[in-house]
Design a protein that fits this description.
alpha+beta, about 25% helix, about 130 residues, Thrombin, subunit H, globular, single chain
Length: about 130
């Protein structure tokens, strides 16, 4: 089987990622943008933003991660620093696709994200095997 272009790119990434919509707030020195993730990994997010943000801009990031705690879902607020590593204009649309690398994140918060990603990947594999 030949891997598609996106699959081969995905396989080269250091950290596994999931396609999931998690509430996200991105703050730079002059603006705040509220959005949601398109995909998420322990090392960063890919999201849609309504204004152009210059690559290499340092950001403060607030992520509202759903987690299981004592058998019930709760929200874990993760705050970290990030850097815009790529921004893509979407022709004909009033938004941009942005890739953000987590440049400064506490180890325990990175672990929360990693655990969440792995749990979601396991759920997806289980659902795929049943269909």
């Amino acid at each position: 089987m030949i891997a598609s272009k996106s699959q081969s790119f995905q396989d080269r990434r250091r950290d596994p990622r999931i396609d999931n919509n998690i509430p996200l707030k991105i703050s730079s020195h002059d603006s705040d943008l509220v959005t949601e993730t398109w995909n998420l990994s322990k090392s960063g997010v890919y999201c849609r933003v309504t204004q152009y943000v210059e690559p290499m801009t340092k950001l403060k990031i607030h992520l509202l991660l759903p987690v299981q705690k004592n058998g019930r879902r709760t929200t874990k607020k993760i705050t970290c620093q990030g850097i815009i590593v790529r921004i893509e204009d979407v022709p004909g649309e009033a938004y941009y696709n942005a890739a953000v690398f987590f440049s400064d994140i506490q180890a325990k918060d990175a672990d929360y994200i990693s655990d969440f990603v792995h749990e979601e990947l396991e759920k997806n594999q289980t659902a795929d095997s049943k269909s």
